[in-house]
Amino acid sequence: MADIDLSSVAAWMSDNVAGFEGPLAATKFDVGQSNPTFLLEGPKGSYVLRRKPPGVLLKSAHAVDREFRVQSALAHTDVPVPQMLALCEDDAVTGSMFYVMEHVKGRNIDDPSMPEATNAEREAIITEMARVLAAIHSVDLEGVGLSDYGPPGNYYERQLARWTKQYRASETDSIPAMETLIDWLGAEMPEDDGQRTLVHGDYRIDNMLFAKDGTDCLAVLDWELSTLGHPFADLAGVIMQWQMPVGPEGRGLAGVDRAALGLPSDDAFVDLYCQMRGINRPERFGYYVAFAFFRMAAILQGVKKRALDGNASNPEKALRLGAYVPRFAEMGLEARA
Description:
The chain is an alpha+beta fold.
């Protein structure tokens, strides 16, 4: 496979992954727009490899070493993650940094309306989503060695500066709604309430693996954007995703009769999460949702720019996703109320 040098990877795994034997065959997953991800199959089992993409990259993006670190730290917590096996920081092996992890054989749900499920199954899976999110935000940072995993200070102030800078670095067209949203987020930023937890950064149902014959979450995937920060960023990210159109691109619940399917309203999910964490419902939640739309718009602008530059993992899909940037900015403005 052109994306990775299988013979070099196999030789490296022989030295760094206990019990490994080659040769390897690889299949590229069609998920993982940011960091290309591969299923590796060998005589004694299967593995998953996740690597930085080739080409010139934005500073601090595609941090597979951070993914490896955080998932290693979570191995013995209530947060389900794959077992981390080895990290390769030597670009000479196959062109960029990568890590190898356990292949979790669960089911991926890419449509939150779960058309094949029963109402009881839908309710159980969404409840599990809230439980796992609360578990992420309840991790003992000192106890698992993650107290230095993110910088101190106001999370939203830091994130607004970071993603505005990332957006400017990948900007291809002027989007008036994005400019208005950036200005509003800066002017209306809430005061720091002191909450500082592990934050996943891209928490949604399609970044989770569930038991094939049940509703338990077996693994939370895609930790590239994780850091220490404000937990409502993840919570608002779930609500933002549900406001997107139904289908493989939007992966949302817009227009869905949730009650008829046994799915909670946005407010009911927020209340369930808060109950599981033992905290009060957040005030001014619209700010957090607006910020979630802004950040996703900035992320998708980067995806679009990589496609135009020839560095996207899946160029056709990247361009389709990039077309959503103006709509995400508009929905961020709509969420302000």
